[in-house]
Amino acid sequence: MAIPSSHADKKEAVRRHALARRKAMDEIERIEKSLALVDHVDDLPLPEEAIVSGFWPIRDEIDIRPLMDALRQRGHPLCLPAIAEPHLEFRRLERDSELVPAGFGTLEPAPSAEKMRPDVMLMPLSGFDGAGNRLGYGKGHYDTAIAAIKREGPLLCIGVAFAVQEVDRVPFEAHDKPLNGILTEVGYRAFS
């Protein structure tokens, strides 16, 4: 295997490796580990009634929908990201929300849904490391949204993934936003 030369090449190599491990999980294992997230819901450092942004899973991502329902039952208003310019916007998610197709094979609340500012973002990722660095899918949607939201006040950023997606080191750049914590099927881990 050739050694990646550019920063982008290094990120892509780490991304491919982490995603290959995720894809190698069988479907039943993926379902069981997704359901296990609910066992750790009370370990999340969420302020009371904090607005929580989740994500609608794509492909073989961890499915956080049961976790989001547990958060809803604990009084947290929910929202989902929607592709918009100049960055993601966040729209209210309720049990009867109309969901429409979005980019990347995911769903988002319809444009008529109320826009919200999340206090907490539960974020998908390709890989993460022990220092709290998150490797996304390479489009920068979350990094630009995080920067914009943090200009308005504090934001807690928690990655959600399978434990097999942890890598030794995520190559990061100045624009990359680190995580405050990571939630996997084995529990919640805070980063300093």
UniProtKB/TrEMBL annotation:
Keywords: ATP-binding, Ligase, Magnesium, Metal-binding, Nucleotide-binding
Domain of life: Bacteria
Cofactor list: Mg(2+)
Pfam families the record matches: 5-FTHF_cyc-lig
Reactions listed under catalytic activity: (6S)-5-formyl-5,6,7,8-tetrahydrofolate + ATP = (6R)-5,10-methenyltetrahydrofolate + ADP + phosphate
A GO MF label: 5-formyltetrahydrofolate cyclo-ligase activity
E.C. code: 6.3.3.2
SUPFAM superfamilies assigned to the protein according to its UniProt record, in alphabetical order: NagB/RpiA/CoA transferase-like
UniProt enzyme class: ligase
Keyword Cytoplasm belongs to the record: no
Family, per entry: Belongs to the 5-formyltetrahydrofolate cyclo-ligase family.
UniProt protein name: 5-formyltetrahydrofolate cyclo-ligase
Organism, as annotated: Roseibium porphyridii
